[in-house]
Amino acid sequence: MSKQDLIERKQYMQLLRNLRDQNIIKVISGVRRCGKSTLLMMFADELINNGVQQEQIQFYNFEDLDTLAIGDIYQIHTHIKERLVEDKPNYIFLDEVQNIKEFQRLVDSIYIKPNVDVYITGSNAYMLSGELATLLTGRYVEINLLPLQFSEYYNFIILKSPNLSKIDILANFIHYGGVPEYIKQLQVGEKQADLFADSILKTIVEKDIFQRLGITNKHDFNMILDYIFDSVGSYVSPRSISDTLRSNGTVVDKQTVAKYLDAMCDAYLIYKVPRFEIKGKGLLQTLNKYYVVDPCFAKVRLKKGILKDRSHWLENMVYLELIRRNKDVFIGKRNNLEVDFVVIDNSGYTSYYQVAWTTENPDTLERELASLKAIKDSNPKYLLTTDMDFNPVYDGIRKLNVIDWMLQ
Asked: In 3-state terms, what secondary structure has residue 332?
């Protein structure tokens, strides 16, 4: 992508600026092709623009055969060590580092050297488990990188198509998502873009799930993946999925379903959101929701327009925005009523969110408000819709336009 087409990830760039030269490993995680490599390259360019010399920066992409040809961790370690600049800060970028064996030991050894600032990326959550967590407990911070958020997408699109309305841009975002390279491919054509998204999805499934877990029954896994993609915003459990598949003639036990769901989460393809009992202040063990990291994957997998289910995909988008902004996000339950999201922000304060495409129908408005009205505490409560009314308040519940809220 040319420099004029690059989208600055302001939130993530600021995080890297804040963490620069701190004695802690920066781990950037996220689904494949969400922009991790580009983020590191943009940060490296910024370092050079701010006076860092090129020889102080070493960048290694472990999906590049030229990098892998250096050798094993010992040879890579020697290669990096010999190029360190004495008495100056050194910035070491290790991209997709999980592709080399015993990468944990390499990272640890580089980290403990003086004047070295280490940044690594990975496309699977298991990178942060096991030996890496044991070796580096308390010495790394994880930054989970997501595809473009709506404000980033909006600012990029409005420059190219200034006559598009906000609601049209929202509809496009729900339909196409925010994977940066996919958006670039759309400029060539939707068919080309879909082929690209399909290839990413196949790589995620093959490399980050099948190969890692040694899954051989790919048919059953793919059926569960389709089920999850087609159930965004719905309550599911390993048992309910197993029962549904059995009724359609496919027998997969709930333990296997749970294993496959965990693998999808580890690959950052989906996010599991547990239910929170608002009255009892505790987590519930059954019927979670799963949200997809980007709708383009569901679009090419299900081979249908997802705007027909726009309310659930709007909910998906709001969830991704909430986890960018806050510490914890849950699904809420209060007696027999459900609240879309219970949010605990980075300061520990709680708020509640209900999401609907529109509440212009009075019955729909009352139904959406009922869940929030049932919560008797004084924490903030919000109803997010695409309606263009002027932020009315109902019994303390603020109704906000979801587009304006996401552009804040």
From this structure: strand
Q: Measuring CA to CA, which residue among 140, 138, 82, 88 is closest to residue 115? A: 88
Contact 118, 107 (CB under 8 A): yes
CA distances from 399 to 166, 353, 402 (A): 18, 10, 9
3-state secondary structure of 190: helix
Distance CA 332, CA 316 (A): 15
Helix, coil or strand: residue 338: strand
Percentage of residues in the chain with pLDDT exceeding 70?
96
- Tens digit of each residue's pLDDT (9 = 90 or more) over 119-136: 999 988 877 766 566 777
Please report which helix (H) or strand (E) contains residue 197, including its range.
Answer: helix 190-203
308: Cβ contacts below 8 Å, ≥ 6 apart: none
> How would you classify the pairing of strands 397-401 and 393-394?
antiparallel
Query: Tokens at residue 103, please?
Result: 């990468």
- Angle among Cα 225, 196, 300 to the nearest 5 degrees reads 35
Q: CB neighbours of 32 closer than 8 A, spacing ≥ 6?
A: 123, 200, 203, 204, 208
Which pair of tokens denotes residue 5? 């087409």
350-355, strands of its sheet edge to edge? 282-292, 270-277, 328-334, 337-344, 350-355, 381-385, 397-401, 393-394
Residue 195, both tokens: 């082929």
pLDDT in tens, 281-337: 666 667 899 999 999 999 999 987 777 889 999 999 999 999 999 999 999 887 788
Q: Give the tokens for residue 206.
A: 């093959």
Q: What is the DSSP string of 115-161?
A: TEEEEEEES-GGGGSTHHHHHHTTSEEEEE--S--HHHHHHHHHHH-
E strands in 225-278 = 270-277
CB 178 within 8 A of CB 147: yes
Q: pTM higher than 0.85 for the full model?
A: yes
Q: Which residues pair with 399 in a beta bridge?
A: 383
Residues in the chain: 408
Q: How far apart are CA 154 and CA 407, in angstroms?
A: 8
Q: Which two tokens stand for residue 280?
A: 């009892």
- Summarize pLDDT for 250-266 with one digit per residue, the tens: 999 999 999 999 999 99
User: Is residue 345 helix, strand or coil?
Assistant: coil
